[in-house]
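pasting for ref
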Amino acid sequence: MTTVLDPLLLPDQVALTEADRRSATTKLDNAVRRGALTPPEATDRQSLLLYAQNRGDLRQVLAGVADATPPRGLTVALRAFTGIWLVACVVQFVVWAALAVFGHFDGPWWLWSDLGLGMVVGILWWTHESYHRVSR
C-alpha cells in the first residue's frame, strides 16, 4: 500500500506518533479522574502504551475507556467506502478512456461521482482521526 491509502484502508495499522501517545495518556488520566479506571489499571495501561506500535495496539490499550478510540463500525465504514471509492474511480476512468479512444470523448464526467464519494471518504477519515487527536 502507499502511504496515502494506508490510513484509509488499514487505519488500525497506522504507526503511532508521539501525539497519539500523548493523547492516549491524557485519555487514561481523564478516565482515572472520572472513575472509569483505577490508578493501578491506568499505570498498567500506560506501560502497555510504551510498547504499542500501531493504532490497533492502541485500541487494545484503551479498551473500555469511553470515547477513547473510534467505534469499530466507523473503522469498517472508512475501509468499505474507501474501497468502493477506489474501485469506482478506476472503473469509471477506464470506461471514459475507452470511450475517448473510440472517438466518444466527453468531458471528465467521472469526476463528479468520484469527487462526491471522495468527500464521503474525507468526512469519514476526518471523523476517524478526530478520535486520535482529541484529548478529553
